[in-house]
Predict the structure of DUF4880 domain-containing protein.
Amino acid sequence: MTDQPHDIAETARHWIVRMASGAMTAEELSAFRRWRAASPDNNAVFERERALWRALHLTPEQDRTTRGTWQRLGQRHRVRRSIRRSLFLGSAAMVASVLVLYAPVASTWLRADQWSGTTVQTLTLADGSRAILDADTAIATRYTATERTITLLKGNALFEVKHDPHRPFRVVARNGTTEDVGTAFEIRREEASVRVTVARGIVDVHAPHHAPAPVRLKAGDRTSYTDGTIASVEHGIAPEEIAAWAHGDLILDNAPIHEAVAAVARYRRGRVYVLADDTATPPISGAFRTDQADAAITAIAATAGMTVTHLPAGILLLRRQ
């Protein structure tokens, strides 16, 4: 990897390909951050190249179906160099036309302004608000003179908002929006739905099928929305259950084995594979420490009657005994 002036754009494209592949390691992420911080030119060129991809507005379906092509593109870095030059240096229209042919994709990580790895991260936003990101979480931030918008691209986040009556604070996740009315609230982007829980204050939850009237939540309230429809509101949620991960705790309540393992695996490096059917194993309930992910997985495996096999690169394999 080089940071010579004539190679900055090529280096930026390399990082974009690696991030889009979905296989970027923690070491590579650290190296990328060092490269980006090493020079204002490096950062400016990277932002320019990423902005071009953001302008394409690819759909989630395109993102899913073309991720493998991105990975192959990264593996063929030298062979495809001339193709990528035309992709990144051309106009948005040219890029879009080449996308049709070669189907690369701007993944979640390319759209993100901030992303976490295997640990919880606390961010101070430009307005003084705080965003606490769970592990494996990504957000994009857009502040203007009249509004503050955070897009939760992946994972879970707790927001402690500095109220500004002249600039609404909104969090967009899937096809719904949560608007602050001076509060702290958690948003969890789950596999098929988004869950909103208020720790203090008030928020309004907007979804297409409830327009124009939002659903108002107060402290201790929780709701979720799926496909634009907001569910009924739960009341009296205990404070310790709200964003427990922000304090190093992971609470599982009758979670299927795959869901339970996935919830823990976000706090460790290396993949975890479960060779079992959810219906063949008991649901998992309990409180675990996020800084002891392997111990939690071992406990979950024991509860489900499974063995844990350690493989190279930190990979764990759970299978029925």
Q: What stands out?
A: Confidence is low (pLDDT under 50) at residues 56-84, 87-106.
